[in-house]
Amino acid sequence: MLKLPKHMQIHPVVNITQLRPYKDGADRFPDRAEANQAPEPYINEQGAIFYEVEAILNRQITPHTKRVTYLVKFRGQDAHENLYIDEATLLEDVPELIAEYEKKHPRSASKQRKR
Q1: Strand order in 83-86's β-sheet?
Q2: Residue 15 confidence (pLDDT)
């Protein structure tokens, strides 16, 4: 019998004949890359968790608030972990990455925003 969360709507009993010992397959697939292990986050004195920003991927202006946000790639994280983060936050934490992105992708004069 499996111990499953209550929200799972499957039968918790599995026949023992369906079970097999786990094999990682490294001997059969030696060229397979290791599973991506995310790096440990940095935890500051207040207990806040931080991940290292690897790159700025995109910029957008949110329609309702007209605020600039950037799509951020975190080191060691997969693409589905990318997040849009407010410009002000990134200017405090990684101003050099914002400057690098803006140099490569300058804003057009009509879309230039006052800071």
Answers
A1: 53-61, 68-74, 83-86
A2: 92
